Amino acid sequence: MSLALIVMLPFLGAVLPALMIRAGRNACAIATGSVTLLAFALLLTHVPAVLRGEVIQAGWTWLPGLGLNVNFFLDGLGLLFAGLILGIGLLIIAYARFYLAKEDPMGTFYTFLLLFQGAMVGIVLSDNILLLLIFWELTSLSSFLLIGYWRHLPEGRQGARMALAVTGAGGLAMIAGMLMLGGIVGSYDLTVILRERELIQASPLYLPALVLILVGCFAKSAQFPFHFWLPHAMAAPTPVSAYLHSATMVKAGIFLMARMWPVLAGTEAWFYLVATTGLVTMVLGAGIALFKDDLKGLLAFSTVSHLGLVTLLLGFGTPMAAVVAVFHIINHASFKAALFMCAGIVDHEAGTRDVRRLGGLAALMPITATLVTVGAASMAGVPLLNGFLSKEMMLEEAVHTTWAGQGWIVPLAVTAGAAFSVAYSFRYIVHVFFGRRRDDYPRTPHDPPAGMWLPPAVLIVPVVAIGLFPETFAGDLVRASAAAVTGGVLPEFQLALWHGFTVALALSVIALAGGFALLARYRAVRRLWQAGPHPEAKAMFEAVLAATVAASRRVMHGLHNGSLGRYLAVTLVAALALGLAAFQAGGHEAGLRDSLPAPAAAVVAWLLLVGACGLAVVLHRQRVLALLAAGVVGLIVSVGFVYLSAPDLALTQISVEVATVILILLALYFLPKESPRESGRGRKLRDAALAVGAGLGMGGLAWAAMTRDAATLSGYYLDNAVSGGGGTNVVNVILVDFRGFDTFGEIIVLGVAALAIYALLDGAVRGAVGRKLAAWTPDEPHSADRHPMIMVVATRVMLPLALMVGAYIFLRGHNQPGGGFIAGLVVAIALIMQYMASGFGWAAQRMRVDYHAMIGAGVLIAAATGIAAMVMGYPFLTSAFDHFHLPLIGEFELASALAFDVGVFLTVVGAVMLALANLSRLGRKTGVAPVNEAPMDVDPLARRQAAARPAASGASARHDQPAPAPTAAREG
Amino acid sequence: MNALVVAPVAVPLITLILCILLRPRHRLVATVSVAGAMALLLVGLQVLALAAGDVVLAGQLGGWQAPFGITVVIDRLGAAMVAITGVIGLGTVLYGLAREGDPAVARDFHLFIHGLLAGVCGAFITADVFNLYVWFEVLLIGSFALIALGGGKRRLAGTLTYLVLNLLATLLFLLAAGLVYGSTGTLNMGELALLFRAGEASSAATLAVVLMLLSFSIKAALFPVFGWLPASYHVAWTPVSALFAGLLTKVGVYALIRIVTLLWPEYGAVHEVLLWVACATMLVGVLGAAAQTEVRRILSFHIVSQVGYMILGLALAAPLAIAGAVFYLIHHIIVKANLFFIGGLAARLTGSERLAAMGGLYAKVPLLALLFAIPALSLAGIPPLSGFWAKFALVKASLADGFWWAAGVALLTGIFTLLSMSKIWNEAFLKAHPQGEAAIRPLRDARWAWVTVTALAAMTVAIGFGAGPVMDYAIAAAAQLAEPTAYFRALDGAGGQ
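ok -> structure tokens follow
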């Protein structure tokens, strides 16, 4: 259990610094440090057991369905890495306390740092590759936060994003690889996977899985060609660079390669992929490092190079190479972290870390100079220091390695890399600390407080100690971790300072000499370097991003340019393509049902239909005419319904048609009579072709459906309408009973639509549109007689008749053609007529109905009938009916569905009237004319009186004014 | 019939009616609206609890036997969708309380939102093709009202695009529903499923269903018919666009999942088409986002790409893939709505939605930065947040079926999403505000908005860490989709009155 605790402690402790910062910077640092210290101490309790070769395990299940268990295990490799992470972490925490400036938010920094630490420990202790992946992504993320820590630096933000992109993308590739690996083995537990070497390497998925996992590792460990993000991550504060980008996070890729070594290594593919990448990275990184003037840049590329070296060793695939790899990991972590911290010290105290502006600091900063000299000498591979030992062992392995049958390539390349390494290491020493003292340092350099130089000093101790007595200080650890890497089998070896006169020793000497020679001729070498091409990774990365954006802009513009016509065209093309594909795929034999004969009347109606459609297309820019043509289409359709014996549909269609045409006409009043010409010839042709295609497709589909016999539900409805629904009009029973739920939904649509129109216009009228309306003048003169007497009289007479018809249609609806919907429309039309005849102002005063409430009441009544059924224990909307007898009226039937129909009726009337009220409100807003109070403009009484007098002026003056409301004149 | 089975529709409808009747009293409307949203959430949690216990609610409306009457079914998928609708509905209503400005607009917001929720819930519970159409209409009309709310030229232009293309989709659906009935003689989904699963559907019926799927695809904003979404979602008022972003496209996705799993449980031609469409949708959406410079426009394009993932799960047809799609739906609705909510807060704080004019939020309002990071990372699929598990299941299912390229597209889309989110992070949060810190205005009256975004972020984290039970639920939901016994049982029931 303590294993899980080691991982969890940094996560749990991450809240501490954020809280403790209130108590001061020291308290904050101490709190953070104690968290790490506690985890480190817990880890140390396991050391004896692990060094004995035991593997400690702990865990529980999390998502068994996906194969994810929270399993941790600790072996030599895990111990080594966890020790590095927590140990160096402790030093970094101390160092950062003094490094961060007062204005830097330290609490946040430590919180991020602990999050990172927890994720990193999680990676190295995970016994489940899915769990490992989780921690893996978390390190990318916390590194993103830490690189962007100095948020005022744009390069920090960009560097953070680049690091996230590269390592995150690598992580995704790795997810795929790991999933494949888990698929091969059938388990995601590492301890299980690590036993299945033969199974994995025999699988056809081995190679893809290997490549994907390696991409993830290489990206994380900044291996060629993914190395470019690391130098840009150096915008982070130095403690972050030292911790994440040299000692720990970049080693996660190395760790994973080492972890998977037992099952993935040993094949040709592994050798060529891993060793080659490592070799190229090592030489390239070392070469570039030599020419970096930024100390942190130099160290960054040096890190790239050293990671390449470890990768190379792991790539060799031999147990001895693995031993050397582990040994070098230890050595590199110690001297590189120290060197980074020292670079930070130089930056902090001298005010710059540009090598060209430094020099001669040795006398000013003796302690730092000593630390750097020892550390960099170790990095260069100078004897008596730990870097020398592992480098020489590496050379020894390289000498025995042939690449593509050539024995000289690897030794030559590594020697060259080593020589570069010597050169840049000594450049760090010589160009910064020795040479002439300058008088133009940005700040006065001096050694930092002990809190800052002690952490690197602690790291320099093992550099010397291991360098002198390798077997004593590192032997057990190297053996335990290397055994974990190789899976138990270890060659006999002794870590020793002196191996005799070997080829490796000679190569070491050559490298040292070469390095010094390079440095001695630095100016000449640098000129040579500057003459060559310098692919700038950041520029390339940004160019790739910019190209992606540009490409996406182009694609988007093609599909999605804001033009409605384009969207419609795309949609129709998609519909046609899909229809064609489905048609091609399925069988398409003709239907077998006999077609009906076409009598002359039907043919004429069809021709009218086609003609009216064509007219609507041709006239579409003349709005009123196009509307009329569309109205003709609607009327013919309703005639068609009559012809096909569907009186209910015909009635509905015709009343809907009338109501909508009236409302649209009223709306058209506010629009120009012609719509602007919007598309050119090409567009029209395209649109015509699409429309014809879509129409043919739809017609064909309807044809296909109608020429086949299919089962229908009609029989059941006919049989049950009377017995079950209590009505002989099957259509109405379907609407209010069988499928009452649909009707219920539809009246909501109607009601909400009316409310929506109201809300939309309400807002508009009070806003900019209202001002526009107020300033608006109609483009055509108004009729002189806004409210003609004959219309007023006619509509007044018709009103009771129409209401009676509405009531009749409503009541008979359950048994004869009719029903609440049609009745509602009829009544609404009758009411609209009153408004049209006498104007809204007059009519509204006589009908003070809140149409909103009417709609609400309608829906409420419909819902209540449904709910009443539920109260009585029946399903929602269950109907009931019975027969009653009343004197005078006689036998009659009442169905609960009638109440539902009342709801429909009210909603329909309310919705139509609300829409009308809106349009008239718009009309009044124009302020073109006053609202009329009288039923007609011409008062017959006044005229008679006026006729008695010689000159009548009042009424005729009013005649000249344009009408305020949408005019009935155009209508009638 | 259990009253609970129609409650998801009835509760928002009654709320809507009450709001209509109480219209003039603005404060009261808001109160009723919040109470109604809470009631819907309770109903959602109740059906979810039942579904998790393997209770499938079903009923015949009006007591008429299927296929003659309308069937409603709430299975695991439906229950999850209803519950999530309750969550987002309540969140939206609460967030909407902070409306400054015209009180009439706020009142209308509360009113229409329940109309929309009724439509959404109706679509989730119905087992009848035409009834599904009706609920689509209800939610569509509610959405028209909501998107146009507040008016203004830019908003109305967006509304027009939204309106025309969605009406076209609805019209296609209506035509398809008619043709489906004409060629099969039934509208009941269970009976259709029996017909198609037995291979007895005529080619005309297949074509009609394909047309219906196209209509759903427009609603779900799949490639290439997604254009209306990024053209319109950014114009609406924040809580409205959050509701749309989270919930509305998912109704289309839900309908696709429902119909395709019912009719074609095995991988076939339809799935193959969907697979390509899914990959194209993921890529196009995420690439489209790369070119955007406004928060909500970026997020809108991500809706498109994320829908691609869900369709990928549907297209793969394997149980794990369907489960992944279900998980994705649940996760995505919360995350996406929350990102829009947070984007709205960020825009109000900084005074702009353009990334170039934003900044400084990390320093000034660190809580918002944290709250943004959670859904943003979840969207990109960073473990252990909810999005990771959804993506993980889908990638695993793709690889298991040998569609490595689909897995590749899914992963690639993930990294682009991450880049997009880091762009917003860097620009809106990390960099300094171009007009200095003082330009960040404190929010008044946003208490409930903060509650909403915090609660949703907490849910994202909870789904991430508690992924086990959620995934189990999704896997069981996928099993129900493969064997929709409740749909078939409704047909056997002794019906009639």
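Chain B is about 75% helix and 0% strand.
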